[in-house]
Write a structure and sequence with these properties.
The complex is a heterodimer of chains A (404) and B (508). Chain A is an all-alpha fold and 404 residues long. Chain A has helices spanning 16-26, 28-43, 51-76, 84-101, 106-130, 135-154, 164-171, 191-217, 225-249, 254-272, 274-284, 286-291, 296-322, 333-343, 355-374, 379-403, and strands at 180-182, 188-190. Chain A contains 16 helices and 2 strands. In chain A, strand 1 (180-182) and strand 2 form a beta hairpin. Chain B folds into 3 domains: 4-240, 3-Layer(aba) Sandwich (Rossmann fold); 247-340 and 425-508, P-loop containing nucleotide triphosphate hydrolases (Rossmann fold); 355-424, no CATH class. The chains are: A mainly alpha (404), B alpha/beta (508).
Chain lengths: 404, 508
């Protein structure tokens, strides 16, 4: 196609320096995370990075991280979900009834629980997407309703204990299928865990390499080679450091395996699928998305269905971890998940955010929680610091945007 | 005291490395209407923001003398205290509040902290009389049309005892009647001794009411001319720095058989379902043809287009849409797109673009399916497509990932056009395709429209600017009160004739 253009100068060539600026802005969250880890490592004399503590941080925060994955999609779509804490409690209770009281096999029970979570999401998604009630109101109502249903289901008492499989999904570790290997001064470490970590790193490097070659093939600009290598080496060092510590302790927690799969899957979905793109376009400009033929209502509906299913997964894991479904389960989890999303770079107006960002945001709060309790800070101070971190993170985001 | 009420000398204003104003000078005589002309980005609005204190003293170089005294405004309140009031392009009214409340917002008629409603409404009525607005002061501003809201803004300025009134594009959103009234009002204010500075793209108005014209280009003062006997072409020459011999690119139409036919199209207002907005409209567009749709504001042009495009507007819609002689389904946007329709909205920022995303993701937004396999998007293909449109349409941006919110109006419009061209439509409906775009970029948009027609597509152009329709279209329909009141070919079309049709059958 040829289009005549009026007498005017041609477009300026790409400016490489600007790209680096943008990258710095996006990577602010990771730099902050690294600084917080270093800070608490120093404050706790290295206790933060001890094998058992790393394992604790992952297991203790797994359910909030799972919620954060769903929440970031909701927030990118321009909505909010206040009901996830109550949904965690209700689905935990459902799972308990299915396994403990009805004695269903655990895979069936878990599947039915996830389905019930999806139904909860569908119920809310209907009011939001098709009836047009703001998500804030619908999910505020949901928060009350689902908490009430939890109390009804449980009859105001805990139900437990759970089958071993569900408990080990929440609390357990991969087995030592191939035995240990010696790591010199670090002592013995599980071979399977190390291999899994190595495979992850290799897979990451390979996919990045292929992406880079493809982009080059299409004549696009890419990071310069040293930067590219640095990025991969950085990721490899962090991943392997965590894996080695875990392998020295009790191997990989099953929830970590699950989280890694979810993080990868949902990142791909958000960035590269048509559905993910539609979420971003709805949050970025609802009217423009509508007039571009995006099925706005259906997409919004499914985002809430997804949130419900993920909340159910978190519900199963939380109940499994406590080995009991309790009436107060999931209290204020919605706030942790929302905070994780915003610390991780989501925008209040929607249209902006990354799955990995939300997970990093959740980990920042987890490390602050854990680090402060290690140095014996009282819980009110932990709350204070978390509140301030949320404020500063969003202020930083607003500030960088205003400067741009 | 000298005759010059305002002297601005050597004004230089920089934003983060970009020089928006470079040694700009402006001298305004007492009691005149002084027009400032220039393309978008020439620095007109920035200059007025410097003058009114939006950009406070110290953020710019140069000096401002108002009534002979040097000024150092720290904010808008300082300049308003001296009698300088600016009315921005986007009106600054609170829609839920009444006219009277808006008039005295921040300047309330109160006694000991309590509003004196009698005095408020009484004084408001007096101000409304002065601007010739026959409305009750207690009416909510939302219930008024844009034209009347503009008058409320002017009344608000009068309440502040204005000496110098600055209007930024006051008639951009007004229909001809309202524009007429506003221009008359400005002439009235001039006879009362109020000085006006007016920024306008509508050169016809400028030559009609201005006493003096200052032309800005690329942040510099190019010339200041007496408006007496000044031609539009002369002003344009100053604005673009070259003679625009032809405001419209040349074109040889190659018109084929009928592609789109809309029959007996009737639409009702969603707010008042018994009110007919489009009334049994019938029109057709042929392959390779550019057809215009003329009408005053409120005639139902946008309503017609949006109701056809996936029923995006209106209730109680009836009528038929035919393509190539067969009736097609346009009940959803998806169906309309699938059937080869495309609609470029009059408000690209609200309805056209995702401003926080880059060119790449905007261009693909309406046809992601073409770039994906089993639900997964091929980003490399997407990039290639965006690059191709960036080159072929001359979208001026550093990279295709630059957020579209940072582009100029003309480039944003090209992105929206690229988005719809990528859907490969047979019929394009372009609603005000050059609104708020400077002269140079308009020419480029016209070239693109011509190319679309040359590719064998049918193009329907809605525009408030009659010269644009006359210069661009092979045929023009006139719409009045929702009815097609006339159809003229390129040869027969004159502004007067179209205007006759556009005002025909008006009940009031």
């Amino acid at each position: 196609m040829t289009t005549k253009t009026a007498p005017a100068p041609a477009a300026a060539p790409p400016l490489p320096s600007r790209r680096i600026n943008i990258n710095l802005r996006q990577s602010g969250i990771y730099v902050a995370f690294a600084l917080i880890v270093v800070l608490f490592t120093v404050l706790t004399d290295g206790a933060l990075l001890q094998p058992q503590n790393i394992s604790n941080i992952i297991v203790q925060n797994s359910y909030v991280l799972i919620l954060a994955i769903g929440m970031i999609l909701v927030i990118i779509g321009g909505h909010i979900d206040l009901s996830v804490g109550s949904t965690v409690a209700l689905t935990g209770a459902i799972c308990a009834v299915l396994t403990v009281q009805w004695g269903l096999p655990w895979p069936v029970a878990v599947l039915l629980t996830l389905l019930s979570g999806a139904l909860i999401g569908a119920a809310q998604g209907y009011w939001i997407a098709y009836f047009g009630i703001p998500a804030f109101i619908v999910t505020l109502a949901g928060m009350l309703v689902f908490r009430a249903l939890t109390l009804t289901t449980l009859g105001n008492q805990g139900i437990g204990p759970f089958p071993d499989e569900i408990r080990s999904l929440a609390n357990g570790f991969t087995g030592s299928y191939l035995g240990n290997v010696g790591l010199g001064p670090l002592g013995g470490a599980d071979l399977v865990s190390l291999l899994a970590g190595g495979l992850c790193v290799a897979g990451f490097a390979l996919s990045q390499w292929r992406k880079r070659s493809a982009r080059l093939g299409y004549g696009q600009t890419v990071d310069p080679m040293p930067m590219f290598v640095l990025k991969i080496v950085g990721v490899a060092v962090v991943v392997m450091a965590v894996v080695v510590q875990l392998a020295r302790f009790r191997n990989l927690p099953w929830v970590l395996v699950l989280l890694a799969a979810l993080a990868l899957g949902y990142s791909l979905m958000a960035n590269n699928s048509v559905f993910g793109r539609h979420i971003y376009s709805i949050g970025g400009n609802l009217q423009a998305a509508t007039l571009s033929g995006v099925k706005v209502k259906a997409v919004t509906f499914w985002v809430f269905v997804n949130m419900g299913a993920l909340a159910a997964l978190a519900g199963v894991i939380f109940a499994g971890r406590l080995n009991q479904a309790g009436p107060t389960a999931g209290m204020s989890f919605e706030l942790d998940a929302i905070a994780a999303a915003f610390i991780g770079g989501a925008a209040v107006q929607g249209g902006v955010g990354k799955v990995i960002g939300a997970i990093t945001g959740g980990l920042i709060m987890g490390v602050i929680n854990n680090g402060m309790s290690l140095i014996g800070a009282p819980s009110e101070r932990v709350m204070l610091v978390k509140g301030l971190v949320l404020l500063i993170a969003v202020a930083y985001d607003v500030w960088t945007k205003r400067r741009a | 005291m000298s005759d010059d009420v305002l002297v601005m000398r050597g004004i230089t204003k920089r934003f983060a490395g970009v020089t928006a104003l470079h040694e700009v000078s402006l001298t305004v005589r007492r009691g005149e209407i002084h027009a400032i002309c220039g393309e978008n980005g020439a620095g007109k609005s920035t200059l007025m923001k410097v003058l009114s204190g939006v950009h406070p003293h110290g953020t710019y170089d140069g000096e401002i003398l108002f009534e002979g005294e040097p000024c150092a405004f720290g904010g808008v309140r300082d300049s308003e205290r001296r009698g300088i009031v600016i009315i921005h392009q986007e009106l600054a009214l609170c829609g839920q509040l009444s006219v009277a409340e808006n008039l005295f917002l921040g300047n309330e008629r109160a006694r000991r902290g309590l509003i004196d409603w009698n005095r408020t409404n009484h004084e408001a009525q007096a101000l409304l009389d002065r601007v010739g607005l026959r409305e009750n002061p207690t009416t909510p501003v939302n219930d008024l049309g844009v034209g009347k809201q503009q008058l409320v803004e002017i009344a608000k300025a009068l309440s502040k005892e204005v000496k110098l009134l600055i209007l930024d594009e006051p008639t951009a959103a007004l229909n001809d009647d309202d524009s007429q009234h506003l221009l008359d009002l400005l002439e009235g204010l001039r006879s009362e001794g109020i000085t006006c500075v007016i920024i306008s793209h509508k050169l016809g108005e400028v030559t009609r009411i201005a006493d003096t014209v200052t032309v800005l280009r690329d942040g510099r003062t190019i010339e200041t001319l007496p408006a007496q006997g000044l031609s539009e072409e002369r002003i344009i020459a100053g604005m673009v720095g070259r003679d625009l011999e032809h405001r419209f690119p040349p074109r040889t139409p190659d018109i084929g058989e009928e592609v789109l036919r809309i029959e007996d199209w009737t639409v009702h207002s969603p707010a008042q379902p018994d009110r007919v907005v489009v009334d049994r409209a019938t029109l057709s567009v042929r392959r390779g043809e550019i057809v215009g749709l003329a009408g005053l504001m409120g005639a139902g042009r946008t309503e017609l287009a949006m109701s056809v495009f996936g029923r995006s507007y209106g209730v109680g819609i009836s009528g038929r849409v035919l393509k190539d002689g067969r009736e097609i389904d346009t009940r959803s946007v998806q169906a309309a797109i699938r059937n080869g329709l495309a609609y470029v909205s009059e408000d690209r920022k609200r309805y056209g673009l995702n401003l926080i995303e880059g060119v790449q993701r905007n261009v693909s937004a309406a046809a992601l399916g073409k770039l994906s396999k089993r639900g997964w998007v091929n980003e490399n293909e997407e990039y290639t497509v965006a690059e191709r449109f960036r080159r072929s349409m001359g979208i001026r941006t550093s990279t295709v990932t630059t957020p579209t919110g940072t582009l100029s109006g003309g480039n944003q419009q090209k992105v929206v056009l690229a988005k719809w061209m990528f859907t490969d439509p047979d019929v394009l409906i372009l609603d005000e395709p050059t609104r708020g775009i400077d002269v140079g970029a308009k020419y480029e948009i016209y070239s693109i429209i011509n190319d679309l027609a040359a590719q064998g597509r049918a193009v329907l152009v809605i525009s408030s600017e009659l010269p644009e329709l006359l210069g661009l279209c092979d045929r023009v329909y006139a719409l009045s009160e929702g009815r097609i009141t006339g159809e003229v070919s390129r040869e027969e079309a004159t502004q007067e004739r179209l205007m006759q049709y556009m005002t025909r059958g008006q009940s009031s």
